[in-house]
Amino acid sequence: MMLSSIYRGIWRAAVHTLTTSRGTPYRFLSTSDRLPLADAESIFALSSGHGRCGVAVVRASGPASATALKCMTGLTHSLPPPRTAMLRNITDPQTKEVLDRGLVLWFPAPHSFTGEDSVEFHIHGGPAVITGVLQALGSVPGMRPADAGEFTRRAFQAGKLGLTEVEGLGDLIHAETEAQRRQALRQMSGELGRLYQDWSHRLKRCLAHVEAFIDFSEDELIEDGVLNQVDRSVCDLQTQIECHLKDERRGERLRSGVLVVIAGATNAGKSSLLNTLCQRPAAIVSPIAGTTRDVVEMALDIGGFPVLLSDTAGLRESPDLVEREGVRRARERVEQADLTLVVVDSSHLPSDAQKAAAFLQEYLGSVLPTVEQPETVFPADRFLLVLNKTDLLPQEQKLKLDRQLRQVSGLPPVCFISCHTNEGLQDFLAVLHSSVKTLCGDPLSGAPSLTQARHRAHLQQCVSALAQYQRYRDIDLALAAEGVRLALTSLGRITGRVGAEEILDIIFKDFCIGK
């Protein structure tokens, strides 16, 4: 009777672990959920870039890969040694016409990117050669063209990559700056996934302990102090995840680009600054006030960091309906910006430093008219004051203003430049780079950063669920356990890996129930 009761309890714990309060099973991509690779279709696609190139790589994956390799290279008896390049004529299986002469590589399962039998054809990159090889592969029985991302999907289903690693691979492919490459490579290496997997493992242990306590504590099979250990683990995990979330979106900014907006009054030189930074006439420059009506956007690489630079309409009151809409869009873009470059015509500054500081405070208020306390809303990493047209100032006045304005509190960093002569441009670029780097952080130092909005959403749900455990811990242990279960679900949706067998393994390992 005792063993029967224990087995029933284990079954209840397993079923309860994988069901919501409404009895709906959760679905995860655990080992048992993955597609059987042997039954998968064979796929092929061009894996290198499109267009003329010296070498193109065509990849095939699946059970028919070996057949494709043999019939297209004339290898009738044996396949090439694994992962060894072999120079062969590549022919059409139907017409026996030679399509090209190139390298072939054989990757037997499971030691391939997808975990399946795979082959790569390294051919010349002319469009006619690529088309001929792809058509020849399509004539091999059991082969079909791959869907977008299907090779990576199969790698995930085979357990070669986790979801975070898949996302890192996608980011690496699309990386345009050095910092983006570093962050994507770090995520693809699995560092972020290992962090989340560690948290998941600790939550599984907590859930197993709570479930075991609920089902077996009356039989005195659970040692004292188990729930106290769970309490400490849950509290520590909640603190760690909350710290992880307090990253000011550095990883997301680095992945998608820092939003830098150029704002200010009309004829301050905003469009000239955009053209100077882009090194081409991207925006119209005119002495006529109000020339820029819409937002002009340009993507830049500032010292290895991605920047989406926006030039906006001059901020002023106007009877023109079109210009008013441009001003509205400009103010909206400033509110969304990660960094705002507030451009000022320095020839309009009072010569007295105190009056100049008051003028700039008022000017900043005109850029963001809803701001009542500028000293609290213009931090150094969110705003830069760009005093343009310094070539119109006497050198003595410029030096005096520069020296005195640096001592004024409540102002963001001040840069003196001239878009006409490029004077002060290098110093400004250094300050801009420092601000952008602060917003993105160093992708190689510290803990791995959040890079996806979905990660943040699931982690926030995880924190809320852990708070539910603490809220119901002394009231209803079943509801408290549900909080741990929901937290585990949220983490599982990030990594894509969690299952019932893992909970049962911990129950048996830690408590030896039914042994």
Give an account of the 3D structure:
The structure is a single chain. The protein is of the alpha/beta class and 515 residues long. Helix content is 47%, strand content 15%. It has 18 helices and 12 strands. It has helices at 2-17, 65-73, 127-138, 150-157, 163-174, 178-188, 191-216, 226-245, 250-256, 270-278, 321-336, 353-367, 374-377, 395-405, 425-440, 453-472, 477-495, 500-511; strands at 42-46, 53-61, 86-91, 98-107, 118-125, 143-145, 258-264, 296-302, 305-311, 339-345, 383-388, 414-416. The strands form 2 sheets. Strands 3-4-5-2-1-6 form a 6-stranded mixed beta sheet. A 6-stranded mixed beta sheet has the order 8-9-7-10-11-12, sandwiched between helices. Strand 11 (383-388), helix 14 and strand 12 form a beta-alpha-beta unit. Helix 5 (163-174) packs antiparallel against helix 6, helix 8 (226-245) packs antiparallel against helix 16 and helix 12 (353-367) packs across helix 14 (395-405). The longest helix is centred in the middle third of the chain and has 26 residues, at 191-216. The chain is flat. The two termini are 14 Å apart. Mean pLDDT is 83; it is low at 1-38 and 371-376.
